[in-house]
Design a protein that fits this description.
The chain is built from one helix and eight strands, in the order αββββββββ. The chain is α/β, with parallel strands linked by helices. Strands 2-1-4-6 form a four-stranded mixed sheet, with no helix packed on it. Strands 3-8-7-5 form a four-stranded mixed sheet, with no helix packed on it. β1 (30-34) and β2 (41-42) form a beta hairpin. The relative contact order is 0.19. Bound molecules: copper (II) ion. Copper (II) ion (CU) binds at residues 64, 104, 106-107, 110.
Length: 126
């Protein structure tokens, strides 16, 4: 391997490392709180970036679930928390872009929607 090629590979690896660092820093976890009364999931409608971790906290005195609507009927099933105990939580490492309506299988009146969208593209310099 020539010196020049080795230098190119080194620079590439450095930039790759920087990119990964910026990527994770730009994706703070999104927190959704489960409530005993309307809107039940707070916020009921959340918009997150692809790959951003999402966590539902259950501070209520009841069991609840966070179940993607696709798990029960039309499929595919993107996520299903199962029963989340009082003071428990359910976390997802991130989702691909899409619209994910979800509900609580124990209390079907509880409904929320998660929208995963790519961040706005950077303005072009041309
Ligand atoms: Cu519930």
């Amino acid at each position: 391997m020539s010196v020049r090629l080795r230098y190119t590979v080194l620079v590439f690896v450095l930039f790759l490392g920087l990119g990964i660092g910026f990527g994770s820093a730009a994706l703070p976890p999104v927190q959704i709180t489960i409530e005993s009364s309307s809107p039940y999931y707070l916020p009921a409608s959340a918009t997150v970036s692809p790959g951003a971790p999402i966590q539902w906290d259950n501070p209520t005195a009841s069991y609840h679930t966070v179940t993607h609507d696709g798990c029960e009927a039309e499929g595919p099933c993107a996520f299903d928390s199962g029963s989340v105990a009082p003071n428990g939580s359910f976390a997802l490492p991130g989702l691909p872009p899409g619209r994910y309506p979800y509900h609580c299988t124990l209390h079907p009146i509880m409904r929320g929607v998660l929208t995963v969208v790519d961040p706005a593209p950077l303005p072009s310099s041309t």
